[in-house]
Design goal:
The complex is a heterodimer. Chain A is α/β, with parallel strands linked by helices. Chain A is built from 13 helices and 18 strands. Chain A has a seven-stranded mixed β-sheet, sandwiched between helices. In chain A, strands 13-15-14-17-18 form a five-stranded mixed β-sheet, with helices on both faces. In chain A, helix 9 crosses helix 13. The longest helix of chain A has 15 residues. Chain B is an alpha/beta fold. Chain B is globular, with a radius of gyration of 21 Å. The chains are: A alpha/beta, B alpha/beta.
């Protein structure tokens, strides 16, 4: 049976159309795989064109078709679904922010929600972060469960006093009398070509503050489970998404499709098992770590890649357990090095039981310590690349 | 030269407004025409380059609003200080930037006005402080109104009211859309931002107000942007194509000036066509430069962190990479 398949993808403004040509025997199978931003379930249309008078559909052909039918969900859709389900489940939940309603979201994450839930649950605000973040915190204090979207976390700096002083610290200052069940979410960190004022990573700044939970999902499953947990959590949660991950599709397990699928905040996940070195990362950098691990595996170096999932509270135990197995550690993040996420992890390792298991100093792979430049060649060299991770792994193992 | 009737400006807390007539000399007319046309073609070229992915990231285009930047500059001096938000290409041009430098900055090359490090939203020239990406639209401005008024600072606050904040119309975002009145104790003018002469006269009036020690003043320029908020916004989900077409046919700033000049024999059709041809060539040359100029050198990556400081080392992506930084 001769089989070759070519995949061509034509991008329209909103839709993905994936042509998979499978030429089996004399039968050509056209499978249109249509995924829209809003519609998660793939719309399948199988048209079988006959090249010969008779055709045989072999059992293995069916298997191939089934393999291609795996459910793939983009991070954007996972977030959308999670919010949709939580809005439906609890009428106190509502979303506010710039362009979230009628525009369907600046990055289309809230697409379709305003149409479904209306003005009372999905609220367009004027361009005034300090103002609407304050309103959101007040609403949370009064008993609602707001999701406050910042178009990017860079804009949250306009409102940071509300996040820290009004939200994070209040339960403590009131000795348990007043809780603030709010979620602040939006894209964080570097994007592509958006320059210095739009590319900062806020994981370290928010991770620094007691009273806040800080979450940084990587995959679609992370996004879905963690956002649901964040919305159901009775505390202020800073939910750091990543614009470059929004369009990335991931396979979603059967279990993760359940309306009560929750990922616990504060627990990391081992994405890849390995014995030689522990590689800890969060958000988009996890993808690069896995890519680097695949390259290194060919040279016989097996990396254990840990996806932090949560910045605060940090799952130090998971990292320690891994380091006690591998004896080597590197951290990988997109943010700046000084006083960053990697710095915190290394400090915890120093102070904890895993230190004595290290065979080499633990090191951090981070963004370059400069404001983000615009020109492509400069930007590319301002964030960790796969080669930087590979280099650091090898240096650590040879130390 | 000729004298033109211009629209009366609505005033707030002012006895009188700018004059109802403006004198335009042939020279001025040709200069405004050329600058506005250059701006227009530059923005349209940028649109093209963005679609070809030669310009990346954010790109907020100014076409439709040319009369604002050109009119304002005509009413002030290059030694005055100006700052704006992200829709900055027009101002970069009027404040002394060249089309070459602006376009090379958009394409991220070393010949760019910020050496390729700033991009569309971060362009600077002498007495022009950018180009800023994040706009705290309300609270801060009222704080500033208060201090400017208290200390009688010679400051003109200008609102380019193009009817939409990204995808949200002003009616949905503002409790009062009379922006020129929102300085409260600060006097204000509402100006026809599509008429370069109206903008110029209003700016001259406002500048005079400040220079004579009367304190700050507000100008609301009623204008319109043809493009969406940025290149990622088609600009038609929150407004109709008909609306855009109507503004284009009835109030286009360049057409308005052209008609005025032609009907008063201040220039001939051929003359203006010639300017168009020259402008087109200038833009083509600039685009050519912008696409062929090399990207910034890698050893410029860490420079310009501090001013007037000795050279220092900057950490790269890993502890073994130490990069150089000079002021």
């Amino acid at each position: 049976m001769y089989m070759y398949y070519g995949i061509t993808m034509v991008f329209f403004t909103v839709f993905w159309v994936c042509h998979i040509y499978i030429y089996i025997n004399n039968m050509t199978l056209f499978i249109f795989y249509h995924v829209s931003y809003q519609n998660v379930t793939p719309f399948l249309c199988i048209i079988i064109a006959l090249h010969s008078v008779e055709y045989h559909v072999l059992p293995c052909d069916i298997c191939i078709i089934n393999c291609i039918l795996l459910l793939q969900v983009t991070v954007r859709d996972a977030l959308n679904q999670a919010m949709d389900e939580e809005l439906e489940r609890d009428e106190r939940v509502f979303l506010l922010g710039e362009e979230v309603a009628q525009y369907d979201g600046a990055y289309k994450v809230s697409r379709g929600l305003w149409k479904k839930y209306g003005d009372k649950r999905i609220i367009d605000t004027p361009i005034t972060e300090m103002g609407f973040a304050g309103i959101a915190v007040g609403a949370a204090m009064a008993g609602l469960r707001p999701i406050c979207e910042f178009m990017t976390f860079n804009f949250s700096m306009q409102a940071i006093d509300q996040v820290i002083n009004s939200a994070a610290k209040t339960y403590y200052m009131s000795a348990g009398r007043q809780s603030v069940p709010i979620v602040f979410r939006g894209p964080n960190g570097a994007s592509a070509g958006v320059a210095a004022q739009h590319s900062q990573c806020f994981a370290a700044w928010y991770g620094h503050c007691p009273g806040l939970k800080v979450v940084s999902p990587w995959s679609a499953e992370d996004a879905r489970g963690l956002l649901k947990s964040a919305i159901r959590d009775d505390n202020p949660v800073v939910f750091l998404e990543n614009e470059l991950m929004y369009g990335v599709p991931f396979e979603m397990s059967e279990e993760s499709q359940s309306k009560d699928f929750l990922i616990p905040i504060g627990k990391a996940k081992i994405e890849r098992q390995g014995n030689h070195i522990t590689v800890v990362s969060h958000s988009r950098m996890v993808s690069l770590c896995l890519d680097a691990a695949a390259v290194l595996a060919k040279e016989g170096i097996e990396c254990e890649v840990i996806n932090m999932r949560t910045i605060r509270p940090l799952d130090a135990e998971a990292i320690e357990t891994s380091v006690m197995k591998t004896n080597h550690l590197i951290t990988v993040e997109g943010g700046w090095p000084q006083f960053g996420v990697g710095g915190e992890i290394l400090a915890r390792i120093m102070e904890g039981p895993a230190f004595n298991y290290l065979d080499a100093p633990a090191v951090r792979v981070t963004g370059v310590d400069i404001p983000m430049p615009y020109a492509k060649i400069l930007e590319d060299n301002s964030v960790p690349q796969i080669k930087d991770i590979i280099f650091s792994v090898k240096k650590t193992l040879n130390a | 030269q000729a004298s033109f009737d211009i629209k009366k400006c609505d005033v707030h807390k002012l006895e009188e407004g700018p004059p109802l007539q403006a004198v335009l000399t042939r020279e001025e007319g040709l200069q405004y025409y050329r600058t506005m046309q250059t701006m227009r073609r530059m923005e349209l070229k940028s649109d093209q380059l963005y679609k070809q992915k030669i310009i990346r990231g954010f790109c907020h285009l100014y076409d439709g609003q040319e009369a604002c930047a050109v009119g304002i500059e005509a009413g002030i001096n290059l030694t005055d200080h100006l700052i704006t938000a992200y829709r900055a290409h027009g101002y970069t041009l009027t404040r002394g930037g060249t089309v070459r430098e602006i376009m090379a900055e958009l394409t991220g090359r070393r010949g760019g006005i910020a050496k390729g490090k700033g991009g569309s939203m971060h362009m600077y020239t002498k007495h022009f402080y950018g180009g800023n990406g994040i706009v705290g639209a309300q609270g801060q401005i009222f704080e500033t109104y208060n201090m400017a008024s208290l200390w009688k600072l010679p400051c003109i606050f200008i609102c380019e009211n193009n009817k939409y904040g990204m995808g949200t119309s002003v009616e949905r975002a503002a409790a009062s859309t009379d922006y020129f009145k929102r300085g409260d104790f600060i006097p204000g003018l509402r100006v026809d931002g599509m008429d370069v002469l109206c903008v110029r006269e209003a700016t001259k009036f406002a500048a005079e107000h400040c220079r004579s020690g009367k304190g700050p003043i507000l100008m609301e320029l009623q204008t319109y942007r043809y493009h969406g908020h940025s290149m990622s916004d088609p600009g038609i989900s929150y407004r109709t194509r008909e609306e855009i077409q109507e503004v284009r046919s009835k109030s286009d700033p360049i057409s308005m000036l052209k008609d005025r000049m032609l009907s008063n024999n201040m220039a001939s059709v051929e003359e203006l066509k010639e300017i168009d041809v020259e402008v087109r060539k200038e833009i083509e040359d600039a685009a050519q430069f912008a696409t062929t100029d090399p990207e910034p050198p890698l050893d410029d990556l860490c420079n310009h962190i501090f001013y007037n400081d000795p050279p220092m080392e900057v950490r790269g992506t890993n502890p073994w990479t130490k990069l150089k930084s000079v002021s």
